[in-house]
Amino acid sequence: MKIYDFRIEYQKNPRGLSVRKPRFSWKMEAAERDTVQKSYCLQVIKDGKTAWDSGIIPSHQSVLVPYGGEELQEETEYRVKLVVEDNHGTIAECRSSFCTGIFDGKELKAEMITHDFPEEETACPIFYRRFRMEKKAAKAYLYATAHGVYEAAVNGWRVENDFMAPGWTSYRKRLQYQFYDITDFLREENEVAITVGNGWYKGILGFDCKPNRYGDRVAALAEIHILYEDGSRDVVATDESWKVRTGEIRYSEIYMGETIDTDEPEIREGTVTAVPFDKGILEVQESEPVRITQRIEPQKIFTDPQGRKLVDFGQNLTGLVEVKIKGVKGQKIVVRHAETLDKDGNFYPDTLRSAKSTDTYICNGTKQTFLAHFTFHGFRYIAVEGISELKPEMFTACVMHSDMEKIGDFHCSNEKVNQLQSNISWGLRDNFFDIPTDCPQRDERLGWMGDAQVFSWTAAFNRNTARFFSKWMRDIAADSSLEKGVPHVVPDIMETYSSSAWSDAAVIIPWVVYQSYGDERILEESWQCMHEWVDYIKNHTNENGLWMSGYQYGDWLALDKEETADRTGATDKYLIANAYYLYVTDLVRQTAEILEKHQEAEYYQKLYELTLHSFQEEYFTPRGRIVSETQTGCVLALYFHLAKGKDRDKILETLLTNIGNHKNHLTTGFVGTPYLCHALSENGAHETAATLFMREDYPSWLYAVNRGATTIWERWNSIMPDGSFEESGMNSLNHYAYGSIGDWMYRKIAGINQIEPGYHSFSIRPMFVKGIEEAEGSLESPYGKIVSAWSCKNKKIHIRVQVPPNTTAVIYLPEKAGILEVGSGIHEYEYDTDTCLKTERYSMDSNLGEITEQPLAVAMINQFAPGMLDNPMIEYAYGMTIAELLGTAPEGRPLFEMVIKALNEQEEQ
Question: What is the rounded CA–CA span in Å between residue 804 and residue 782?
C-alpha cells in the first residue's frame, strides 16, 4: 500500500494559502483486495517545531480532513507528514508542504492607484515602481490585483504564466488578489510593473456591447513583502509615488481583440493618483487560474473562394493564436477569428455577432513572437492579412481555460460516440473560463446560470470543478438577495432575476459539488443563498402555494413549438417553474439535514409536501394525465418524482407516444434534455433512451458529429443539412448545455453512480446500448480511480470494475439477478449471453413497407393481427415508421417488437 495525490485544499504544495484551517486529502494504492484505511496521523511542522500532531486517529476519513493545530502564521512555510495504516497492517507515509500568505486583505498597506490619461487613450497603462535592495532577500512575495485584468512583471520577467487575472467576480462586493513568490526575480536594482487591460471591469461587455460596467478607469493594487536574510522586512506598495506610462499594447478588449505595436510606439507618461477602495472585499485567488493548457499546430493552410488566407486548427477552441515571424519594420499583421466556414467554404465570422475578435500586430523588423495579453477568442479558423505566404510554423493555437484537473474519461467502440464525448469535453474546457460562460466567441460570454446548472453534473465527471464552482457560488451569493432573488447571469451585469432552472443553480451547484467531492464546506458557505432562494419563491407563490408569476425561460430552445421571440418551448412554463421549485426545496431540506439544522429540515420537508400536493392537483388529472403532455413535461414529472405512483406508467406511456409521434426523435430544450434519457432508462424504457442517443439525423447529438462538429452547438440545427446556418442571431457553435447527455453516458452506459458523497461508496450498473459493443468509463474520485469497463460481443459479456482502496462498491451485472457488494481491487466477470449489440437492419425507425417486404413479417402479422394488412387504408401507412404507427396505436408495440426481433435474427442466420 502507498499514499498518492496528497492535497491541501485540493492543491499540491499550495503557495499563498489564506485558509486558517486548511483541509488535507489523500488517496491510497494497494495490490491487496479489500483494503481500507485503519488509521491516520497528520503532523504539521514549522521551523522544526510541531504546529499540530493529530495523533493516531482510528478513522477511514481521507478526504478533506481539517487542520486542528495551533493558529497558523502568515507568510510561513509548513511541512506536512502523513502516516496511514491499513486494515492489513501495512504502514505508508507521505510528505507535503504549504506556504501561507496573508489571511485578511485588509492588512495590506497598498492603495488602489489609477492614471490620468485622457478618455480617448486606448493604450493599456503600465503602473511601475523602481526600488533598490541593499541586502539579500531570503523570501519575497507579491500580492496584486486590479480593476481590469493585469499582468505583473519584475525586472522585465512575467511573474506567472496565468491569464486574465484577477478573474471575474462581483467586483463591487468581491475582488480576488493573487499571490506570487518573486524571490528569484529580485536583483539589487529592481522594477516592478503592472500592466492593466480593460477586461471585464471597464471593457465592452454584454450583447449590448456596453463599456464601463463597473467603472470608467482601470486601476491597480500591488504590495511586495521582502524578508531579508538578516530577519528584517521591507514593503513596497502601490501609492502615489508610483509612475505610469503607456506601452506596446495600444488597444485591448475581450470581444474586439488586441493591438500590439512594437515599432517604436508613442510612450506617454502620466500621473498616478490613489482612489478610494475598500480592502475588505479582497479575497485570495479561489479557483484555478486561466492558463494555456495545450498548443495545437495548424491542420491546414488554404485560400477560401473569396481569396482570404486561412489557417484551420482542426478544433473549435478558446484561446489565442501565437504568431512567430521575422517581419519588416512597420509590417502590420491582422488575425481574425471564426468558428466555421460557410457552405461554400468561405470564412464565416457571423456567429460572433458584434465581436470583432481581431488581433493586430505591428512588427519591429526582428524575429518576434506575438501573443495577445488581455483578450481571448472562440475559433477554429483564422484569416490572416499582412503576410504574403503563410507557413505552418508561424502559427500555434494556444488553448486557454481555467486549469481544472482532468479526472474523467469515457470511450467506447463507436467512434461517433467518442467524438461526441470529445465535443462535450472541449465545450467544457472552452467555456469554463474563470466563470462558466454560455459561449466563448460572440458578444456575450456571460455566466448564464441555466447553462451551467444543467451541465454541472457532466462537468463534475470530466474535470475537478470543486474550486471552480466554489468560487462562482460566492459570486452567486454576493449577487443574490431574499428581496430580488437570484440573477440569471453571474456576475450580474444584466440585473434580471429569478427564473426557474436558471436561478435554481444557486441550490443545485453546491449540491453537485457536495455529491461529487464530499465537500460539506460549500453547503455551509452557500446555506443562506440556497434557502433564501427557496424562501424567495415561497414569498411569490399564489393562494395555492404555487409559483405562477414572473418571467420564465421555460424549456429554452425546445423544438415542440414554432420559435417566436420567447423561444421557450411548448411545455407550460409554470409547470417547469414549480417542478424545479419542488426539486430545490427537497435539496435544501437534505442540506439542512446534513448541516444538522433539524428545525429547518422539518420546515422544508413540510413545505415540499404541501407544494407537491398542490402541484399534483394543478397539473395532473384524477386519471393521471399531465397538463403538458410534452416530452419535457413528462420527463420532469418522472425524473423529479412529481407524479403519483399510480400515474407513473401512464405518464411514461405518454412520453413514449410523444417520442414515437416524432419518429423516435427528441424535441426537448435546455430543461428537458439533461433528464430525458435518465427518465427513460430509470423507468423501464432504456431501449428508447438508447435509440434517441444513437440517432444520427436531426435532431440528435450525433447529427452535429456527422456535420463535423468538434464542440457542442447551442441549437440542434445550428448548421442545416444543406450546410446553411440558423440565422436568428443566436447560433453559437460552442455551447455546452446539450452536452449534459455526458452525465447519462457515465451513469448509464458506464454505470458509475455515487451512493455516498465523494464516491466513498458507489454503484456500478452498466446498461447496454445497441450500436456499442464495448465501453469504459473512468473517474479519478476523491478516493482514487474508479473504472467500469464492459464488452458484449461474440456471445460473451465481460465486465471489469476497479474499486479504489478505502471504498466499497455495489455491482449490478447486466442480465444477472442480485447484486455483488465488493471492496477495493479489480473485479472481473465473464459469462454467456444471447445479446447482440451490433446495429441491426430493422428497428422502430423502419417503415411498414420495408418490414412487410419480408414474408416472415407478413406471416407473423397475419397470425397475431389477422386482417390488419387487408385494411384498404393500410397503403397510407406503408411510408410511416413503426414508431409513428405506435404513436397512434400503442397497443401494437408488443407485436412489432416481436416482428423486428425475428427479422433481425433471420438476418444473422
Answer: 10
**Does residue 889 carry a pLDDT above 90?**
no
The secondary element (H helix, E strand) that includes residue 575 is: helix 573-594
Q: At 551, list the grid cell.
A: 418571467
Q: Rounded CA gap, 654 and 659, in Å?
A: 9
Q: Is 825 helix (H, G, I), strand (E, B) or coil?
A: strand
Contact criterion met (CB below 8 Å) for 717 and 731? no
SS3 at position 839: coil
110 is written with which cell numbers?
Answer: 497598498
Task: State the Cα angle at 724 between 691 and 207, rounded to 5°.
Answer: 95
Neighbours of 364 (CB within 10 A): 17
Give the residue numbers marked as catalytic.
444, 714
The pTM assigned to this predicted structure is 0.95
Query: How far is Cα 317 from Cα 340, in angstroms, rounded to an integer?
Result: 11
What is the Cα–Cα distance from 164 to 792, expressed in whole angstroms?
48
DSSP-assigned letter for residue 751: -
DSSP string for residues in 437-474: -S-SSSS----BHHHHHHHHHHHHHHB--HHHHHHHHH
- Do 432 and 288 form a contact (C-beta atoms < 8 A)? no
Residue 639's region, left for phi above 0, alpha for psi from -120 to 50, else beta, is alpha
The residue type found at 223 is E
**791, 666, 658: which is closest to 740 by C-alpha?**
666
Q: For CA atoms 244, 246, 247, 253, give the dihedral sign.
A: positive
Q: What is the pLDDT of residues 297-347, one digit of tens each?
A: 999 999 999 999 999 999 999 999 999 999 999 999 999 999 999 999 999
pLDDT at 872 over 90: no
Biggest alpha carbon–alpha carbon distance for the chain: 104
User: What is the spatial order of strands in the sheet that 65-66 belongs to?
Assistant: 2-8, 23-29, 65-66
471: left (phi over 0), alpha (psi -120 to 50) or beta: alpha
Is 581 in a helix, a strand, or coil? helix
Q: Which amino acid is at 268?
A: R
**pLDDT of res. 895:** 93
pLDDT of res. 902: 93
The per-residue pLDDT for range 531-566, each reduced to its tens digit, is 999 999 999 999 999 999 999 999 999 999 877 667
24's grid cell: 488535507
What is the C-alpha radius of gyration for the chain, rounded to an integer number of angstroms? 30
What pLDDT is stored for residue 565 in this prediction? 61
Residues 438, 607: Cα–Cα separation, whole Å = 33
Q: Is the peptide bond before 211 cis (omega within 30 degrees of 0)?
A: no
**Amino acid sitting at position 498:** S
- Please give the angle made by the CA atoms of 504, 507 and 509, to the nearest 5 degrees: 95
Under 8 Å CB-to-CB from 622, ≥6 apart: which residues?
A: none
Torsion region of 167: left, alpha or beta (phi above 0 gives left; psi -120 to 50 gives alpha): left
In 3-state terms, the chain is what percent helix, strand and coil (to 5)? 30, 30, 40
- 417: three-class secondary structure by DSSP: helix
Cell of 876: 397510407
